[in-house]
Records
---
Amino acid sequence: MPDPVTTAPPADPNSARPAPDTTPAPPVRVALLGIDGSGKSTCARLLARRSPAARPHVVLSCLRPHENPGGPLGELSRHLDVLSAEADRLGSPDLKLAVLYLQMCTYGVAERFFTGQQTGAIITERHPLIDTLTYLPLYRRAIGAVVAPGRPAVLRRQLARMPAPAVQAALAWCQALARRTGGRAPRLDTLGEELVGLLTLPPEAMVSEFATRFAVTPPDVAILLDIDVTEALRRLRARDRRLEPHERADLLPLIRDGYDKALRTFTSVRVHRVRADHRPPHDVAAEVARLAGL
């Protein structure tokens, strides 16, 4: 006689449901771009004030991680800031570019650190990939005016006259970068010329090269704060500090055009242009927040 058919009890509908995913969504990464005087810093501060308490917005400096409260690499950043000012004082564009590169190599460390801090959005003034494509052509012109067969020796003499702790910190960072990439350590006396040599690469190849070097990826959203050069210069001259070498009437239009050209390479990035002159800062920040989905 066959066994009777056993009927299984009805399944509990709740037991079949997968457990809810409590992993927080990654922060949206927003890069604020624009020539000096366009209002990037002011906009970033206003966006940070609008952030929710549960998953706040974090504002990061692309170049100076010592300005990121609670972030990593603060001591190194202060030393690099010293070297950057020294390069300006000496009028050394190739050394300035070398230090700028080392500063940009700190950004990926800071971005990864704050990504793991229950952050809702990471807002950065500038972005290492986009700004490299924007500014590198200007440095090529400046470095071309000073480069000569004995130039590395000149840079070594300049470095020898700079504060030793800052130089030692920069050299240690070069060694750390070599360990990270498995390559050779950057040399401060030849790095600037090496970097402008990468301009021979196609734009997409340049992005790939610097993404590997900086250990970063493009932002999710790029906001270009567009401003008339005359208004930008008026704002810059009203500040209580000396102008940077590139903050000039003949160079700011080139930087403005450089951003337009660079952004065309980043096809995966949502790009928005926002007029930032002759408008209240709160209005600009509100438009940026809407466009970035903050």
---
Amino acid sequence: MKVALSISTDPERGYDFVRHQYVPYLMSIGLLPIVIPNHLGDVRAYVAALDVEGLVLTGGGDIAPERYGQPNTASNELAPTRDQTESVLLDWATEQNRPVLGICRGVQMINVYFGGGLVQDILTELGSRVHGKGNDAHDIQICDPRFADVIGADGLRVNTYHHQGISRDGLAPALNVFAVSPADGVVEGVFHREKPVIGVQWHPERPTPSTEADARRFRRFFEGGAWW
């Protein structure tokens, strides 16, 4: 399956980029990722010409807080052009009922797109040190039995590379939670109630204890669609 792949951008240096791990990882689970530039005149026309069948939103910098109605208190590495490109990609995917996977920033973008908000800094707002680049991994709880059946467990250990996140209070109305960090309540996995849209807060493309479970879930998702 060919999928559109959102990528990072550096407005100051004038280039887009994607980390090396994404393409090999997605190919390993049966996908052929096609990168989508952030500076396009017509994103929809570009995607239509590529004949892709799904969308993967990658990790990266923070989403502009004005998109979820907050002042900027702790957000950095902002890229409004990327925010807009990904919003158009989500318009296309949801209208066409195409499968969407969000990774790290990607799950946050999904939540914002559907009307949710973000915790701009987990350490200062929630007092939690569980997340972030200083930790190799932490435990999560799979809180939806339909996902536990596919994963084969009711808990996982996952990597962590984020300082922002989704709280239950900030969850978009159209989304449900399937995974949570029991230590602090930070949402780790979401899905859309009616659309084939799923997102995880960790990075399955990087080394993580959850590699095998992630591969099972994502193959099932892209091959068979939403199972919830």
